[in-house]
Amino acid sequence: MTRDRPAVNAAGQTLPAAGCAEVRIIAACPETARQISEVLRLRFAATEPRSYGAGDGGTRLHLTVDTVHTPEVLGPFRPRLVTDHPHRDET
After folding, report:
1. Residues in a beta bridge with 52
2. pLDDT per residue as tens digits for the range 20-60
3. Of 17, 43, 44, 68, which sees the most CB atoms within 10 A?
4. CB distance 18 to 12 below 8 Å
5. Are 33 and 27 spatial neighbours (Cβ–Cβ below 8 Å)?
6. Residues whose CB falls within 8 Å of the CB of residue 91, separated by 6 or more in sequence, listed in order
7. Whole-angstrom Cα distance, residue 49 to residue 73?
8. What pTM, to 2 d.p., does this model score?
9. What sign has the CA pseudo-torsion 88, 41, 61, 5?
């Protein structure tokens, strides 16, 4: 009986399964990190985010995103324009 081993890169880091990505979100505000993880989970099947402190009151979320499978509930994609804060090169 053979057992599949996880893929490991040259730096010795374990790689996620094919079609998956490990995502790290770092934000000064926990609510901002939560909103970003929620958007990812609307478009991709993903694990529940794991929360860690990032120092100075910041938050770091880790989640695994599966790009092969879609989430159970997938609503229509509605891009949202954010106009109240222009990009640095637009000022």
Report:
1. 60
2. 999 999 999 888 998 999 988 888 888 888 888 887 888 89
3. 44
4. no
5. yes
6. none
7. 18
8. 0.62
9. negative
